[in-house]
Amino acid sequence: MRHRARVAEQSARIEADLASKVKSEFIANMSHELRTPLNTVIGFSKLLTQHHLRRLPDKEIVEYATLIHDAAGHLLSVINDILDISKIQSGKYTLDAREVNVGEILAASVSSFRMMASEAHVDLHFTLAPDLRAIRGDAQKLRQIFTNIISNALKFTPAEGTVDVTARGTGTGGVVISIRDSGVGMTAEEIGIALTPFGQVDGGRSRWREGAGLGLPIAKALVELHGGSLELRSNKGSGTEAIITLPGRDTVSAVESHK
Ligand SMILES: Nc1ncnc2c1ncn2[C@@H]1O[C@H](COP(=O)(O)OP(=O)(O)O)[C@@H](O)[C@H]1O
Ligand SMILES: [Mg+2]
Question: What are the E-state strand segments in 60-216?
Fold first, then answer.
């Protein structure tokens, strides 16, 4: 066999091995993320069924029902995320692109976090430049992107911190959105982990009520389907800024060709 052909064959094999390794890791992570909340549901509902034997106090009943409810909610969001990421990875994901007002979508996303921010004692600021033009995009997916990133900003910012959300025009009809927090921050290596499916920087933290590490990879893929880019700038201990750039409507014909 000629040398070049051999090298090509070798590299194809390495690539296939890698793909299958990524796939088994994906499945291992996925089963962990699904099993953990399911075990909570099974365990605590079992305790409730033993009520007639053990006469549980009201307080405990409420506590168990709450744990079951939270675990089920978590399970649903993990399943939705896993379906999203697999659909995206298979290249079958399509956008419902129309003319949208990014400022309005962003405002609605920010509003839905007001309560959470005030409970966490984090100042949530929102500034919209007056020069925003309509772009072509999928309103529901844009909302999902903003929600994922704002929820991270709040989740990783301790009390008395701030989260700043701004949007401005690019000059070529696009929009730049910045979501900046004063929270725990990440090193360059940690940013790489955060953008990998199931990647969470500090696995030791209590995982409850938290995502499965799919939020950022989904957000990044959705931004890219819009022909845009997602960039994370961060330093350990001094906060994180997520910058989303979405192209103007004249540049987004690429979006529809995905259909
Ligand atoms: N604003 C942020 N500040 C610090 N760390 C962050 C921030 N956003 C994301 N991360 C890190 O990236 C990881 C992955 O984020 P994400 O994909 O949204 O998953 P999840 O929120 O489910 O953990 C988080 O677990 C966290 O370690
Ligand atoms: Mg998240």
Answer: 98-100, 123-128, 135-137, 162-169, 175-181
Q: How far is 127 from 132, CA to CA, in rounded Å?
A: 12
Mean pLDDT of 65-82: 93
The model's pLDDT over 168-206, given as tens digits with 9 standing for 90+, comes to 999 899 999 999 999 999 999 999 989 988 877 765 444
Residue ranges of the chain that CATH labels 1.10.287.130: 3-89
Q: How far apart are CA 198 and CA 143, in angstroms?
A: 21
**All CATH 3.30.565.10 domain ranges in the chain, comma separated:** 98-256
3-state class (DSSP) for residue 162: strand
Average of per-residue pLDDT across 2-24 = 78
Give per-residue pLDDT as tens, 225-259: 999 999 999 999 999 999 999 999 876 554 544 44
Pocket test for ligand 1, best of 85, 200, 209 (most atoms within 8 A of CB): 200
Q: Which residues line ligand 1 (CB under 6 A)?
A: 148, 152-153, 156, 181, 183-186, 194, 199-202, 210-216, 240
pLDDT of residue 195: 92
How far apart are alpha carbons 79 and 97 in whole angstroms?
25
Tell whether domain 98-256 is in CATH 3.30.565.10.
yes
Q: What is the pTM of this model?
A: 0.83
Distance 65 CA to ligand 1 centre (A): 28
Looking at domain 3-89, which CATH architecture does it have?
Answer: Orthogonal Bundle (1.10)
Q: How far apart are the first and last CA of the chain?
A: 42
| Span from the CA of 141 to the centroid of ligand 2 (angstroms) | 15
